[in-house]
Amino acid sequence: MIRRFLVVLGLVTASLVTTAPAQAVNEELSPTVRLDRAWIVGKGAAVEARYVVTCPINPLAGNGLMGMFTTVQQGAVTSTDFLEFTCTGNPDTVVVTNLVGTLGTSTGQVTITTKVRNCIYGGPEYDPEVGCFNPTTTDVIKIKSGAFAAESTEDRELGLTTTSARVTSTGEVRITQVLDCTSPNSVGLTTEVTQVSGGTARHGQAAYEDPVFGVYFECEGLREVSYLIPADVGQAFVTGDAVIESVLAQCFDGCDQAFDTRVVKLRK
Fold first, then answer.
1. pTM of the full predicted structure?
2. Given 3.10.580.10, 2.60.40.2550, 3.10.350.10, 2.60.120.10, which CATH number is that of 7-143?
3. Phi-psi region of 132 (alpha: psi -120 to 50; beta: other; left: phi over 0)
4. Number of H helices, E strands in the chain
5. pLDDT in tens, 33-47
């Protein structure tokens, strides 16, 4: 998955594993995680999972920022995703969209492993009196196709909207997007595309490259960009449903960021 990491842009400067010393955890303050249901979208291009997460009131030293790591496995298909969300002290519904890459996922039984962690960056959310929370659940469930649900992402100071996704004559996807950078920012933008059509899975990802600054560029106000997403070697995208996942970010350490994940119908 490209989401939240943007390795190709070199933006990640902090590990997702905390560097804080090991401490005993007050389990009474640890959040509880329950998988409500999961389903397939985009004809097998992604699996969505809906959780109910409950955090005790003010369980953290910081602002309640949590990280959810999910792994979906079905036979040879394994895909891992990461999502940030904020605990409110009440039962929160959290939806994660997990793109499954080049293999696709069929209806039937899957194993979903989920970890919720508060010390995702080793930063101010670490409380030495409480420790780091790591509740982990594993569910083996049956899934079938369902309707796409908006992912529980949290935009901060940036906006991102996909306005067009078309297939080129050479099997690439041309993405057109509007960026909303109300405050001037240096950012990076990447998109991942997965598609299952005719029993064949297709996958590709790429970063937008500004003609002046490259993949890490200056953004101010509203700006429209258009760029190509090539399919992996030996593949070509075709018309029909696909799942796209885009992220516009200053960095991934509590910085400004925006997300756009959706099912699109690719046209010529």
1. 0.84
2. 2.60.40.2550
3. beta
4. 0, 13
5. 999 999 999 999 999
